[in-house]
């Protein structure tokens, strides 16, 4: 199954390995400081939060998440009872309401996922309508603690990599995935470092 990130010490170990392996990460980490653990509970609620976060700003996702939580719509039973209309009233778009209902009706074995290797986890998750590669990778990284996952299609990671590695253009998802191969077995920590570096770029350059 590979390494599992459980504590801040695990993240620090990965960060030290990356800094020693690549001077660019050493430079980034000197600016970002210690990287956050960012682990969240797994299960239905964790995956639902990731669906909410798809293709919206952090602020928008937080607002929708707060509305759903206030309405008690954070369990499978509550989501199914609310139905499409109730979920949309709470702030979900119609497609995301549909995805939430599909997830709630699925027989996904969240405990069993922990017995699978990374590729099997991603394949199992992406077999569910509404769970694409990014959502599956984010769940594996931050809800399951998998240490060697990298969401190469994430725009923030691409922008951060372009700035950190002084690339002439923002790398494509395929190019990012190829770059990230050098960061195994700590690709999830590399992603944390790039997310943190992106925030520095955003503050420095006013990126949206």
Detailed description of the structure:
The structure is a single chain. The chain is mostly helical and 208 residues long. The protein has 2 domains: 8-37 and 148-205, Endonuclease Iii, domain 2, CATH 1.10.1670.40; 44-142, Endonuclease III, domain 1, CATH 1.10.340.30. The chain has helices at residues 8-21, 23-32, 44-53, 58-70, 76-89, 94-105, 110-113, 118-126, 133-142, 155-164, 173-180, 187-205. Helix 3 packs antiparallel against helix 6 (94-105).
Give a nutshell description of this structure:
With 208 residues, the protein is mainly α. It has helices spanning 8-21, 23-32, 44-53, 58-70, 76-89, 94-105, 110-113, 118-126, 133-142, 155-164, 173-180, 187-205. It is globular.
Mean pLDDT: 94
Note poorly predicted spans.
none
Oligomer: single chain
**Total number of domains:** 2
Strand content: under 5%
